[in-house]
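> Could you send the ABC transporter substrate-binding protein prediction when you get a chance?

Sure thing. Input:
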Amino acid sequence: MTRPSRSLALAAVLLAAAAWPGRAAERIVLMVGGIEKIIYLPVKLAQQLGGAQGVVGFYDHTVYMQTQGKAVVSVVQFSQAPGEVELVSARLPKVRTMADLGGQTLGVTGLGSSTQFLSRYLTLSAGLRLNQVTFKPVGTGDSFIEAMSSGAIGAGMTTEPTASRLLASGKARVLVDLRTPEDTARALGGPYPASCLYMQTAWVNRHKPEVQKLVNALVKALRYIQGHTAAEIAAHVPADYYGQDKAIYIRALARSKPIFIPDGRMPANGPANVLRILTHTERSLQGKAVDLTSTYTLEFVNAVK
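Output:
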């Protein structure tokens, strides 16, 4: 994944319009980075339940991109925590905290990704300098597992169900957990709104009926998550999401359910905490004014019936 200043990263939005009454037949094309991840479940669930396809990324990209002159806005917030976890290889039994990772190679989804933002913050918060570790892009799923298993990385940040697969194999253990709101608050000092649907602000302003239709479907998916068991939800996702062990996926999903926001609204203190963390880790944000009110909107979630 490239820096969001060069592309729209996880939730790059390539938007033509959607078929809509009174308009020429057009379509919306939305990209999803790692749709099989549990943190991005509302998108696939909305599709499977008969709603819209969605594109998701982490909310922090809307803040970062504003400082790069890109105007994008989160129109529905899926989660109040990253749903990520920093794992350390079982080959490194002496590593007990982030402070012990000096000299190690740390896996992230991609350079400029949210996993790198968070990994940089945890590294600095542990008292290490960024030049004491190396960040290596290793992707997600099987590629992350291979990097950890082969020793290409000593530790790394990933999401579910990848994390549970590695933990079950005994090849890794948890170093920092960001998979629940409570763990996230302890590690990051408050909520960290993460997966969301965000779009180019100018396009949203020109296509509000289409955006509303997308948000309606995704909020209904969020409500479905809250009202059903992990096993019931897993019945709606493709088999390749959980591979050969559906039970691991269901357990990981049950643990992850509390991160999802039932109504899609941004947590009150979330944007300020995200900005604090990014300003601490990213030099390009330091000294720049950010209008957080323009990085998300409640207009569409408030209109969902």
